[in-house]
Description:
Elements: E1 21-29, E2 32-39, H1 43-54, E3 65-67, E4 71-74, E5 96-97, E6 112-115, E7 128-129, E8 133-136, H2 143-156, H3 165-173, E9 186-192, H4 194-201, E10 217-224
Antiparallel strand pairs: 1-2, 1-10, 2-9, 3-4, 4-8, 5-7, 6-8, 6-9
Amino acid sequence: MRRILLCLSFFIGHLSFSVAQSTEVLFETTAGNIRIALYDETPQTRDNFLKITKMGVYDSLLIHRVIKDFMIQSGDTNSKHAKPGQLLGTGDFDYTTEAEFRLPQIFHRRGVVAMARESDKVNPERRSSACQFYIVWGKVYDDKRLAKVQEKLDSATQGQVKLTPEMLEVYKTVGGTPHLDGQYTVFGEVVEGMDIVEKIQGVKTDKNDRPLEDIRILKATVTKDLPQPKPEKKAVTKKVVRKPVRKK
Length: 248
């Protein structure tokens, strides 16, 4: 049985979140440029994302899955040479990364970047895909709908995920995908190009949510990397010539 990596099918200008961001990645796509900053609070996910970006993994891949008012998804390694209409979603590496949930500080507000993964049935630890990721667009919610979302979260997370007043306010004013909180690792956010994300999330797609016209990542570049440790200074050695000790 083929397992398709999913984030469940179902900018912030005036709000500030104190999340450290030491690194950035630029995606040059056929629809325009999108720049993302990666969170230091999710170091394993961040470091893996930087590693595979430097390897050129994302170059020429499609944005293979788009759902309006929800998200855009990329990173399927099979999409580079995919034929028109080909079902995508299974291309990945042979490893996963540990889940890094950082609620309530980091959550699924509009503009964040998160890793896709396999379903709870085969992945109860909710470990992340090595390379497939999505950018959240989502919707703006009212109190009634958020109450229903909380009920679903209680069921999905055994009551462990609670939407705080601050999170609720963001979902009511900015929007996002609150039903994914505590289940998918959010590891960064768009800092430039949300207009491109908005444009992409509204394109026409086929029955498998693949855009009818290919949207491709031309190149992904780490534009701001982790500081490299300074090389240790080598101890200065001096050769000592010892004179033989003569016995008297």
